[in-house]
Amino acid sequence: xxxxxxxxxxxxxxxxxxxxxxxxxxxxxxxxxxxxxxxxxxxxxxxxxxxxxxxxxxxxxxxxxxxxxxxxxxxxxxxxxxxxxxxxxxxxxxxxxxxxxxxxxxxxxxxxxxxxxxxxxxxxxxxxxxxxxxxxxxxxxxxxxxxxxxxxxxxxxxxxxxxxxxxxxxxxxxxxxxxxxxxxxxxxxxxxxxxxxxxxxxxxxxxxxxxxxxxxxxxxxxxxxxxxxxxxxxxxxxxxxxxxxxxxxxxxxxxxxxxxxxxxxxxxxxx
Amino acid sequence: xxxxxxxxxxxxxxxxxxxxxxxxxxxxxxxxxxxxxxxxxxxxxxxxxxxxxxxxxxxxxxxxxxxxxxxxxxxxxxxxxxxxxxxxxxxxxxxxxxxxxxxxxxxxxxxxxxxxxxxxxxxxxxxxxxxxxxxxxxxxxxxxxxxxxxxxxxxxxxxxxxxxxxxxxxxxxxxxxxxxxxxxxxxxxxxxxxxxxxxxxxxxxxxxxxxxxxxxxxxxxxxxxxxxxxxxxxxxxxxxxxxxxxxxxxxxxxxxxxxxxxxxxxxxxxxxxxxxxxxxxxxxxxxxxxxxxxxxxxxxxxxxxxxxxxxxxxxxxx
Lengths: 271, 318
Fold this sequence. Notes:
Chain A is an all-alpha fold. Chain A has twelve helices and no strands. In chain B, helix 6 (184-201) links the parallel strand 6 and strand 7 (204-208).
């Protein structure tokens, strides 16, 4: 098991490294695209700054706190998108009949899909998220205890895994319906857009859906409540604030099962 | 284990559910049997031709043998491995060439593609150098190694694909339409290469093709599939008898004459002094030639062997 995992990671680095070298031969394009990605993803945050130019708080949260929510979800989505987001190309590969070639190579299909056309320029989104998060940490008033630091680290890992799991679930669905990538994007990029703001601006039913149906509230909302020392505004149990790793694990298992089932029911194309 | 055949297929079937629109919104599901009840074994070192019309189930079979498709029913073992269950493990022991699509990386020069394959197949460096040198020489790849795959011609790309499929010393090489779209010279060289790979490296070959010359020049054994079932499995020579084909005796008489009447043959065509006599491919020509020569003044004789394409067409049409 550990050996297989190690091999998968090494193969990922080999394949992704090859794509990075290819993109590096077009250096200027790479730099421009990375900057463009940084700036474009940053426009969302500018919108938040504009809101705070007129208000002191949004849904009961200060600018620093909202920036913290924004930065964490942006960073988690950015890393998940960089490492795993490529699986959403699965449907296109199935339609073009190029998936078969991957299936006869000695690297797990999942690893090959993640590494295929690995685009380091997506680092732009990661950088932007990290910058906003870093800035927010200078603005929020948090008494940093070891528990809070641990929850912040666990937030970054669990949040990335949750977005990654959603990417994989969406991709697995493409084994059934090859043009399902739009539906999947609604959960990942859509989930990211929703969790950029304090969930107090949404109705309670929506928050329940984001907790128990598409669990993106576990990416940053619940751990952030713990870190910022807030009581749950919707009166939900405090235990949820420490449950992000559990949500991540459940999603991971679901995604793995769905992916395996998808591979087994793959039908290939004619000829 | 060692007594088992390299490829064992027993009662293998694969069905597909095809949904078709039958009304404005209503859709009905049909079961399509792409492969049904297929059984065969292939021994190490064989070179087997796998032929059949479009949609007969050739590619479906290859995809099950490589683990890409999961069988609906039946048993299947390749080198002792269940392909769909242990697909990734099996990949190290087989090579696959899809004639229609490259398995190489479109944007990379051949050399980089090969190097990447070396790393993901974990080919020992010495072995890799030996193989690469040999394939480069045999397939004349020297000038192409630094060209990106997308700039290669079809024939060049095919040579690159075949070298790529063999770099990790597979025991079995599957070729799906390897000569499709190639010119006569390229086809000839490719066949020569495959013959050498089989003879010198004892790689077992299974190739699907539309080009019966591939089979005639490469394979002692041929399997014919039609509508998902094997309709013939045996020596190429046996196909003639199986297809109830006929040979033709062409007789040039000294003078024009009415249709020749000898036992065992029927006249199919008369053109002046030349007559065509048809007789079953399995029968000897000697008694017919003797009977004709005894009764007529013969200027010349020749025998036309049946065209293998006709033979196969007859097998399909049954």
